[in-house]
């Protein structure tokens, strides 16, 4: 029995030493990271959401590259307006056998032929090709604005994530700093035999748990920082610190929005949907062009023959046209009709998808808004004052370690959950803007 008690006691001491050693290594690693970070001293830029939007539109490389695609298609419009170049044919005799001369251009008995041809496109083919080229420019514009919508949504959500992650990190930093002081005091009291080992172990274990959770937040902070650096095209060594005023958080509410109005905005501003509609329009333009291609083009020709005709210096004018007997472009016309039907079905399906996106984003935002409005925002301030009193009473040993850690953990959880609730609310509003393709509070 005595041997079992001794074994149990040794095992407990060993467990405590392992926890204490892990905590010491974690704290040492955290302090080393802090020293390295302070030695680097990276520059920090403070940005509001409006400033981030301006920098994003001016410097994002993907946006700038996609915008050049619009100019490229405008150049194709210019090309489609150009007429067919005339063709010139020249023929001469290389050697005159009678006069034994090479290339006898000046001999009155030499033979030369000159022909000039000009293709005249009929049935409005050039205008129809121009219409297709203009629709291609519209499609390039649709792709650009849809990319802008997607990247703006990514920018805003990352901006809010980074901001509220920093807010949560401040809570952890505050708790860890307070708890480190408490652990240090309790370590001194334990050395004097005034406090039991189990209380000190509980404090160190909880401190280790907080440090681990804080490390996970730091990893998320690094990821968000990297994403913003790419979106804003800034120097990776520069730290971006988002700024969100309290007025911005409560400025907008989903309760002021109307679902039918959101459907209208999505119909007007969802450029991915507009892209499908432009594709359907282009298929109709293609059918018109294919029908025009069934009409043969006209060729005008002028001929000069020096000595090869029945009279010297012959001038002639000719007209040529293909006879649409065997090939009337029937296959291309039929394929164009099928593609019109297919594109219209695609537009209908995507319209349904867009309406579903809007309705889902609106419903989720309503739920988040309701939860946010029911949360007592004064609760966190009161809890903050309460936890100060709890810490003071614990140091005076008016409450035990279990009650102290329970209050400490409750305070941390409430602060973190409130920050997450605020983030979820702003994210849901951004999801509505993403679903309708524009900011519904400004339209």
Automatic annotation (TrEMBL):
Pfam families: OEP. InterPro entries: MdtP/NodT-like, OMP_efflux. Belongs to the outer membrane factor (OMF) (TC 1.B.17) family. This is TolC family protein. It comes from Spirosoma liriopis.
